[in-house]
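Let us walk through a complete example step by step. Step one is to write down the protein sequence. Step two is to encode the small molecule, zinc ion, as a SMILES string so that its atoms and bonds are unambiguous. Step three, shown after the inputs, is the structure prediction itself.
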Amino acid sequence: MTALADIKFPWYQNALDLDRVTRDYPPPPDFFRGVFRASRDELRALQERRFLATMKRGWEIPFFQRLWGAAGMQPGDVKGLDDLPKIPSYTVEHIRRSIDANPPFGDFMGVAPGGPDPMPLVLQTSGGTTGLPRPMLYAPTDREVMAILGARRYAMQGMLPGDIVLVAFSLGLTNGGLGNREILWKYMGAVPVMTGGGATTPTRRQIEICEAWGINVVLAFPSYLRHMALVARDEMGIDVRDLKVRMLGSHIGLEDRKTIEELWGAPLYDSYGTHENGTIATECKQQNGMHINDDAFVIEIVDPDTGKVQPDGERGTTYITTLFRHSAPQIRFNINDVSSYMTGGDCPCGCSFRRLTKIYGRNDNMVKVRGVNVFTEAIGVAVAEDSRSNGEFFCVIERFGESGREELTVMVEVLDLAAHGAAVKQDLERRLKEVIGLRTVVSPVGVRQLDPHTGLSQTSKIKRLLDKRKAS
Ligand SMILES: [Zn+2]
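Step three: the predicted structure of the complex.
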């Protein structure tokens, strides 16, 4: 039997070279003096180097050996980023199959717990709503670089050392809450206050904490920011503008930025991330497109029908190639989010990183109703524009009659249902016809009536759609 004193306990501080990590992926303030202003040529050269290292790492991992081998690829075939479009892409379905065939973590990670030379690993997951969520293991350098990229995001948006930050993203298996804790205390000198979502800390208590502890930054999903402001106003008699919160950090997508900024009296910043990688792209103070961390990712926007890379300005599916990952590197991972590159030159902030316009939704959140492509996110924008509603909505798609006619019903919470229900129905049906090009049935309901459908007060992963066609 091995004596306890002879077991190898891996110490985090010995598992990575922190000086090197912060040199290679500088956090603020070094970031602003360095790669933030690098020329496009310098960035491309950096990407080329890191991409070839990532390909080498990929060939060590069974998942890629299988995927690439099946496409007839040999090590050394890919000579640089110009060859990227020749590499087969893959989706979350490939990842699920890898996990099924090689439980519990799949064969795409390239790292595993235990063994003779154990590595300190963190496990977080996707925000799966049905069945087990997908696990992701992070090696020490991965986790540090992710924290650094997150710190760049908040610094670009105006967060400062000493800020007291309410983190109202879910705690637990998903990465949003705990990932932010690492960002804030390791690389921002800001103080994370880990309230989590409404299921962890009731919303009223969150407001009380904002008031008592001088919270000056709030991080949460747009729907929860709206919910907080309305609970404060309607149940506590508090105008959240009086809390003097200086900035709001979120993932906005197609939600309405303006109504939330007006409720809080503070700017709301967008960003784009995945549970696998943390912050991929972020808005700066200009609020005009999201700068991709070009030294850590190569992002392709691909036509989902042809598989060809789209010209700038055209929408397509987002393919991610990571340049920093040791565990679970991603090389042409089709993440299924719809976005486009911005056109029209450099950002006034001085950052040379290229920008994505925004995330228009997920290809798989897109539903076809009577032949029309509909993003539920776009419906949310129209609902949020109507101040008689609190912005909460839930969509149901059903088939009716022998003809199987498809009907989209949008249930909407109306603040004063008796006074405004009928008018909201009429106005919103007209507005939705304009916005999504489809006739819908709007069904006004009272405040909180949709909670059981959306899960708003319980989780930050809000449900917006029930497609009953699939059940039948
Ligand atoms: Zn900028």
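Step four is interpretation. The radius of gyration is 23 Å.
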